[in-house]
Amino acid sequence: MSAPMVFAQRLRGVASSPVRDLLALISRPEVISFAGGLPAPELFDLDGLRAAFDRVLSAPDGRRHLQYAPTEGNVDLRELVAGRMTVRGLPTAAEDLLITTGSQQALTLIATALLDPGVVVAVEEPTYLAALQCFQLAGARIVTVPSDDDGIDPAALEAVLRTEWPRMLYLVPTFANPTGRTLTPARRAEVADLAAAHGTWVVEDDPYGELRYRGEPVPALAAQPAAADRVLHLGSFSKIAAPGLRLGWVRSPASLRPVLTVAKQAADLHTSTIDQAAAAEYLATTDLDAHVSGLRDAYRARRDAMIAAMPHTAPPGSRWTDPDGGMFTWLRLPAGSDSAALLPKALQRNVAFVPGAPFYATQPDPATLRLSFTTHTAEEITEGMRRLAEAFAAA
């Protein structure tokens, strides 16, 4: 008889991601999935990325891109990313950045650097579920802060900061996952002031910021003078280039850079050198602004198709967000509804969504669900919403 398998205590209570689990169930081509936050693959710049890889590998010194490299990342890539961030209103130098294997790794490194078991992390509720997994894995105690259509509530945040003393506040302030909401400029200033006053680190996760379809850009939290030395800003190529590159970055205050670098050395030594070199070549030779503009045009039409269909899809008494950008809308069905119980009915009709409960760290709202509008065309979205209406009607 074999001995029982023993796993690390830190994995207990860390649930599997329902989004990742759903991907296996909805891979059939007839399924219209609003579940995963997936960019549209037909919009990937396949030719441009292929050419960038070819050029760096065909160069006389191409073999160096297959060698070990500095943990901090490719200098050319960091300079190009820093320049792009500066143009967007967040002054950044190459030395401010650590290149990571996707922004999810950046979040993991921050948790490694800042969170001991039992340390308190404050999060907006609902929030990005993979962040909850990361903080649970670190053994942190998660406390929640209410939010509304304008983002996290500063008064509620102040109460949490005063009573719970969280070491870190995690936010997706621009086109949030899962709600699509954007923290207003006035509230950003309040959050920055509160973080500075209480000495709280703020993680600003910004994977969607360039995908704006309406309105004027909002300055990053990290650009707020009051909290400039308290905010870690996370970015990624996943939504504006391709998630398969697994390239992200963290812009951190100087005080944290050495410990984040050590944490990354312990994790993977460095991010893929060839991917970094190709990304640097791609940024240097491609009009990425034009590519992102094309993404915005395509995703705007898809968002509009979903929002236009919502009054005919959602049951009477439902409420939903109408995001200015990003990839998601958040739907709350009438009180007493259970979106998890509705999911099998939707899958029977070859349409999928993500129930809202996993996005809550404490008491979930079972009537909520997340819908992503980026993966399918406007015509497919219209058909998917028709199927979803049938599923709701069958409940």
**Major sheet size, sense and barrel closure:** 7 strands, mixed
- Along the chain, the helix and strand elements come as HEHHEHEHEEEHEHEEEHHHEEHEEEH
Strand order of the largest sheet: 2-10-9-8-7-3-4
Number of helices: 12
What would you call the structural class?
alpha/beta
* Basic shape: globular
Strand runs, count: 15
Unreliable sequence segments:
none
Tell me the radius of gyration: 21 Å
**Percent of residues in β-strands:** 5-15%
3D structure, described in words:
- Helix 3 packs across helix 9 (273-285) and helix 6 packs parallel to helix 7 (185-198).
- The chain has helices at residues 18-25, 46-58, 75-87, 103-114, 129-137, 154-164, 185-198, 257-268, 273-285, 288-313, 339-348, 378-393; strands at 32-33, 97-100, 120-124, 141-145, 147-148, 151-152, 168-171, 201-205, 231-236, 248-251, 319-320, 328-332, 351-352, 354-355, 368-372.
- 47% of the residues are buried.
- It has twelve helices and 15 strands.
- A seven-stranded mixed beta sheet has the order 2-10-9-8-7-3-4, sandwiched between helices.
- By secondary structure, it is an alpha/beta fold.
- Strand 3 (120-124), helix 5 (129-137) and strand 4 form a beta-alpha-beta unit.
